[in-house]
Amino acid sequence: MPLIKFYKKQVPWIWRCHIDLTHPHEALWDFLKTFIMRYDIAVISSEMYRRTGLPVEQRIIHPAIDPLSLKNRELSKKDIMKYVKKAGIPMDKPVITQVSRMDIWKDPEGLLEIFKRVREKVDCRLLYCYDMASDDPEGNAVYQRTYRKARKLVESGDVLFVLGNSQILVNAIQRFSTVLVQNSIKEGFCLCVTEGLWKGKPVVGTKVGGIPHQLIEAENGFLVEPHDRETFADRIVELLQHPDMAERMGRRAKETVRENFLTTRLLLDYLTLLNDVLCGHNGNAPCSFLSDALQYIQPAQPEISVSPHTTS
């Protein structure tokens, strides 16, 4: 970002921010703001991230997922079972899964305590489908600490740690799981929730970041306050004990993503944004950028040739 100081501005500039700006480190924010103020528009993921005192237009565009990617494309039941079996995941009881990095903000240790409460009422299994972020030096320490606390449950087979280093494996695990959870303390938009909903699964998540924009209480999942482990556990138990309700909520979950969080909607949002910055927000400047762009993504109409000769 600092390199922007050395670039001669010739076109409008847009800054895209994916992270949570609700409580930034003030000294760092003041430093970054000197660069951000050079932009024409800042794009954020949530109304909560809007910063007062920033004299730059802030526009909300929710992230989206690609339904055709390996992580999100449809899988046959045969393929799901193949990848689940290959990962060594038993199929004898319901599975609760969290897909996330090993990160303190995902609170994997807190999730373990939630699972212990759930297990008192329902015989089930907890699966950490985890990954290590290369830019997070604390990731391995969080993993080791969580694993040590879960050791006895790992030895009994009730807690599993599966490295989600394959997109198609993550896809299969999400589709195989009974309930998906996101026990975050702090979040960005959290596309892990979006991807889980797209698999037709109810999600229990915390009221942080972009999760409340995706979960509709008791329709496609449940929202819980961070650190409220008792309520979180109760919501999981409710879904495990009422499979018909979970299935109904799962169907609604997929439609939530279809209607709001696919790349087709994101494309239109960005085309609209580019139309605004290139043509002016008030609509007075004549501009055909959006209509010109749309002609390339709409199916072409077949040409009809008319013969100059007719026969009777």
Q: What is the compact description of this entry?
A:
This protein is α/β, with parallel strands linked by helices. Helix content is 40%, strand content 13%.
* Average pLDDT number: 90
What CATH first level of the largest domain would be assigned?
Alpha Beta
H-E string: EHEEHEHEHEHEHEHEHHHH
The unreliable regions are 282-286, 299-312
- Helix share, percent: 40-55%
Strand content: 5-15%
Throw out a few tags for this protein:
Rossmann fold, globular, single chain, 2 domains, 312 residues, three-stranded parallel β-sheet, alpha/beta
How is this structure best described in words?
By secondary structure, the chain is an alpha/beta fold. It has two domains: 10-61, no CATH class; 77-260, 3-Layer(aba) Sandwich (Rossmann fold), CATH 3.40.50. It has helices spanning 26-36, 77-86, 108-119, 139-155, 167-176, 191-198, 211-214, 229-241, 243-260, 263-279, 289-294; strands at residues 14-16, 41-44, 57-60, 95-101, 125-131, 159-163, 179-182, 203-206, 221-224. Helix 2 (77-86) crosses helix 5 (167-176). It is globular and about 60 Å long.
